[in-house]
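To assess whether ligand presence alters the predicted conformation, the chain was also submitted together with iron/sulfur cluster. Input:
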Amino acid sequence: MAIDENYLSTYEQSATFDGENQPIEIWTSADQPYKGIGSDKLGIWGTIVGVDFDLCIADGACIDACPVEVFEWIDTPGHPASEKKPIMIREEECIICRACESVCPVEAVLISED
Ligand code: SF4
């Protein structure tokens, strides 16, 4: 299973989390709610740089691939797929190179242009 490529139109933007300079939007559906950090349901985070946190296994390839350091680790204790995730803390810095998207082993990343 990969990130839903239509999530920006089919999911609801239902929560935010603080990024470095602007809020990160959290997207959810009936099947994929957001129950908060520390839960087993995290939804899809980000709008330009989208990462399905429920699929992410914390491989870290996206963090290594990004040329402009968009990502940082965030701890997500209790999540069954991985207990840390790559938060797009500097999402506005993304240059849409799609390196992170292509290296993710579980296809959890989707880059969307404005
Ligand atoms: S698309 Fe490129 S610049 Fe944007 S987050 Fe991914 S690796 Fe970084």
